[in-house]
Amino acid sequence: MKKYWNEAIETLPRAELEALQLQSLREELRFAYENAPYYKRSFDEAGVSPEDLKTLQDIQKFPFIDKKTQRDTQGVGSFLGELCAVPEERVIFVSTSSGSTGVPTMSPFTQQDFDEWQDVESRWFWQAGMRPHDRYVHALNFSLYVGGPDVIGAQNLGALCIWGGTLPSERLIFILKTYQPTCIWTSPSYAWYLGETCKKSGVDPKTDLSIRRIFVAGEMGGSIQATRDAIESLWGAEVFDFYGLSDIFGACAAQCEVHDGLHIAEDHILVETIDLNTGEVIAPGQRGELVYTTLRKKARPLIRFRTGDIGFVTVEPCACGRTHARIHVDGRKDDMFIVSAVNVYPSDIEYVIRGLTEVTGEYTVRITEKNFTCQYEVTVENADAARHTDEQVAARVSEALKARIGVKPANVVVLPDGTLERSTHKAKRIIDERKLEYNI
User: Fold this and answer.
1) How far apart are CA 409 and CA 256, in angstroms?
2) Which of 177, 205, 201, 179 is nearest to 191 (CA)?
């Protein structure tokens, strides 16, 4: 059994990989400029043209786009809008964003886009250890969600696939017991919730089920060591974090067995990191906002798309032998907040909460303002009220957060086990009640 899905691409020496990117980028810029009304207008207004791209660094001459660009151009001039670069007759599939940060936006695909996307999904599944002998249950939403069709990537690999979707937990547990799949894909929150629900119903995920690999996406928990450890301990399975954008395709990046960042498909996506304040490109290894440019997508090319995700990139070859860059995502720019001049990332809060034995691991963060100052409050659950008082738990949480982040919460609320709502998809853990503008 081969180690790589596509060894030639996945282990391409860095110089050759960047040469391939440059060739693809030239073609993508030219295609976008000649076929998408928005890019023709924006490039002309910025005084740049596809011929100005001589090196990969020259991409910095071209203007950014973001979610607002997508919303403003959607439906303008045609059903698919001014970012679309092909006639509607060539589009065979559309997904939409969740709309959690505004109006939902469509993501169209040609047949070539779709087929290449699913080949990348096969690459990620294979990288995470899935093989043709595996049974796989796809427990993601199929309703317009870009991750829904990724089950096809597992089928193309040869695995036996069960199209589960967002089933009620009891029904999904029945499937896990009856068909004994070895792999499942869901969100980190739901993986935790489903494991807890199994135990409450008398099913031990470790011994009564056959799940050995859990793919998670949609939240940052899969790359937080404490969260991964908790899920792996609950299930007796290995957790692999996947990362995707409805704007590009299902999973654009995924962890390998080394679990040191997520390999991104650099034959399809050019990655930049920009300073949060200035928008200037910064070096690999430095934390900033991740910016992506599609290299092969035809239905809707994305040129310098600001994702709003905060993280950093490493380009050194991985211990697994793959040469594609790895992204390390800390969270959303929208979710990061500043307390006493300290940048607070929700991922750091989750790292602390998941690593404490005194709490259940469920939590919410409430961001407020007092006397024109930003502060935060954390709500947790007491895992064992017979052993730890609520006051002891609150003190432990506050101390641990202070040690990890540098600023302690204004308050820690401790509730009984089972009080906080368990998520069946993406957990809503950040509640921002501020009325003032706090610039990052």
Assistant:
1) 35
2) 205
State how far Cα 1 lies from the chain centre.
29
Q: Which residue has the tokens 């937080």?
A: 224
Last residue of a domain, one of 311, 332, 353: 332
* CB distance 363 to 379 below 8 Å: yes
Residue 254 lies in a domain: no
Verify that 234 and 283 share a domain, yes or no: no
Look at residue 252 and tell me if it is in a domain: no
Residue that terminates a domain, selected from 283, 305, 332 = 332
- Give per-residue burial for 55-76: e unless 16+ CB within 10 Å, then b: eeeebeebeebbbebbbbbbee
Residues forming beta bridges with residue 312, ordered by sequence position: 328
Tell me the residue type at 104. P
As for how many domains the chain has, the answer is: 3
For 325, residues 6+ apart whose C-beta sits below 8 A from its C-beta are 263, 264, 266, 271, 284, 313, 314, 315
Same structural domain for residues 219 and 151?
yes
Please indicate, yes or no, whether residues 14 and 100 belong to a single structural domain of this protein: yes
The one-digit pLDDT tens for each residue of the chain (440 residues) are 799 999 999 999 999 999 999 999 999 999 999 999 999 999 999 999 999 999 999 999 999 999 899 999 999 999 999 999 999 999 999 998 765 555 678 999 999 999 999 999 999 999 999 999 999 999 998 888 899 999 999 999 999 999 999 889 999 999 999 999 999 999 888 898 899 999 999 999 999 999 999 999 987 778 888 889 989 999 999 999 999 998 999 999 999 999 999 999 999 999 999 998 899 999 999 999 999 999 999 999 999 999 999 999 999 999 999 999 999 998 887 777 888 767 788 878 988 998 899 999 899 999 988 766 788 999 999 999 999 999 999 999 999 999 988 889 999 999 999 899 876 666 778 888 876 544 43
Q: Give backbone dihedrals phi and psi of 25, rounded to 5 degrees, phi first.
A: -65, -40
